């Protein structure tokens, strides 16, 4: 371990070869991403903090590990257009923000919002899709930690 830094998810732990830390600069490891130790459950995740392909590891962590649903980029625009009384404008605005959806799919999305229902999850998921290349930015290595009760502890 070459260092640790507190983060709002837990602790980011950096690592490097012992030889490098002792001054042998030829022994430097390249591409060694830090680990995140989750403060909530003790799980350990390797995180790619800088990627040539871009991406936000913190957002990916929230989605994949913590299960936080990211905001729907289309919903507010559709609601605003419906509030002005135009379902056609709602479909148009939605298609501009989510060009991967067909006209029929966006109409189903808008119809659900007009009925004060959540839009279909499969369509919402596709409004959030990105074209980031490369592998995942967060990989779970271990955990979550399981607490050991006093009656199961080994002497």
Describe the structure.
InterPro entries: Imm35 (IPR029082). Residues 129-155 are annotated as: Disordered. Pfam families: Imm35. It comes from Paractinoplanes ovalisporus. Residues 4-59 form the Immunity protein domain. The chain is an alpha+beta fold. The chain folds into 2 domains: 3-69 and 134-142, no CATH class; 75-127, no CATH class. It is built from 6 helices and 5 strands. The chain has helices at 18-21, 57-64, 75-83, 87-97, 103-114, 121-127; strands at 3-7, 10-14, 35-38, 44-47, 138-142. A 5-stranded antiparallel beta sheet has the order 1-2-3-4-5, with helices on one face. A hairpin with a 5-residue loop joins β3 (35-38) and β4. α3 runs antiparallel to α4 and α4 packs across α5 (103-114). It is elongated. The two termini are 29 Å apart.
Summarize this entry quickly:
The chain has 155 residues and is of the alpha+beta class. Helix content is 33%, strand content 15%. The chain contains 6 helices and 5 strands; from the N terminus they run E-E-H-E-E-H-H-H-H-H-E.
